[in-house]
Amino acid sequence: MTSLGFSLSQARLAFSGQWLFDGLSATFAPGSWTGLLGRSGSGKSSLLRMIADLPIPDTHALTLTTDDQRPLAGRLAWMAQQDQLLPWRKVIDNVLLGPALRGHPSAAQRQHAMTLLDDVGLRDKAEQWPKTLSGGQRQRVALARTLFEDAPVVLMDEPFSAVDAITRLELHELAARLLAGRTVLLVTHDPLEALRLSDRILILGGQPALLSDFEVPHGQRPRALDAPDVQRMQSQLVARLHSAPHANIEGSTP
Amino acid sequence: MSVLKRLWPALVGIFSILGLWQVLVVVTGVPGYVLPSPLSVLHAFASHQQLLWHHAGITVIEIVAGLLIGCISGLGTALALARFHGLRRTLLPILLISQAVPLFALAPILMLWLGYGMTAKIVMATLIIYFPVASTCYDGLRQTPQGWLDLAQTLGADRRRRLLRIQLPAALPALASGMRMAASAAPIGAVIGEWVGSSQGLGYLMLNANARMQVDLMFAALLILVTFGVALYFTTDAVMRRLMPWHEDRTGATS
Predict the structure, then answer these.
(1) Which domain holds residue B77?
(2) Which residues of A62-76 are buried (b: 16+ CB within 10 A; e: fewer)?
(3) In the A/B pair of chains, how many CB contacts fall below 8 A?
(4) How many domains does chain B have?
(5) Is residue B136 in a domain?
(6) pLDDT digit string, tens, across residues B231-250
(7) A101 touches chain B (CB under 8 A)
(8) For position B226, which CATH number holds?
(9) Is this complex scored with an ipTM above 0.90?
(10) Any idea where the ABC transmembrane type-1 domain is (chain B) (predicted)?
């Protein structure tokens, strides 16, 4: 797998007859991790869905260009807020969901899935039902499933928000290690998560919403929790998010 | 032991009702051709065993065949509707209209077309469960959580595999309630068919016994029908559970 950068332009999204954002553009460098923050209703999750070409009910448009000019479809992996494990497939078969949906998983692919489960520390759970796992373990299986696809671009929509704080920090370390080298776009509500994991932080806010940069701490991701930079910038980032004009979606009229 | 422990409250209830029934018959002195006592039903059951089992065999075949054909064709219809969008506009209105046809009124016509044999009864049992099974399955197939569909799309699933590997298993719980419902409705179809016109089967036997004032025999036939109906329900439930070892079910028959 080689790294792949991509950029978007002319991104627009309507909500209740108004442009929530219009003419957005951004570039994502190959192998970089971008944290996308914004308040609820800013349209950040919708933007991520637009990049993934997933259905959204509202009027939208987006021009997507990859560095090699070929389509992004088939080369991106998607991690949602919930782990989305299928309860009727054993853990290993959830990791193998991609090949199972495109054909029949081969023995070699099964072997590879086992290795990935080993990487996320769940080799011994391979033959179990997902319902026997804890929230953190389930999210690790979802990570293994994402890794199996070996996609150069990974889109994550608050992937660690459903687990407790300690588990989340552990998942950060794991994700940063295993997804290194991929171009990651991470939508998150958690300023600390963005500061630990991002090479670049983008804030979506305003009316209509714009993307603005926020300086990231020094050092390699995942950055230590107690790094002075991280601590200081967390409060700055919260203040910045707080002051960003709230997307006014209640009072708008078509 | 634990089965008995779970069942005893139900057994106490059933035997209380039977006891009450027996007392009522003895105290009021109601004639046996109006309401036979449980004991005389038991007696009729014992003395007409061969007759009862012969007719029961016929009815059971009709019910099971109707159930299988109805469930398979209902599921097939639901899958076709979910897979081929074009079919919906043609097939859904027809399905809706066919549901409005009173099936009991169809029974005489089925006799006319298919004769007095088993076929008409099997068709009747099939028809009575076909639409409900098709519609619950189709509803289940349409209500796949969006997150799984998103995942299928980003993983590059084709429509057929998405339907079979995601939408169908996701619909299994809904499908299970459709099947359980079908299991309790199929006997009705078969018996109605037998009432309208037949020369064998429990429905025929009951009608015949009724005409001869053998009400105890009628109740004995009913006892077989009820027992089989309950057995069929629990078998269907068990089969559906076997199909879903991953499913945490709190609405099933035994809980």
Answers:
(1) 39-243
(2) bebebbeeeebeebb
(3) 59
(4) 1
(5) yes
(6) 999 999 899 888 888 886 54
(7) yes
(8) 1.10.3720.10
(9) no
(10) 56-236
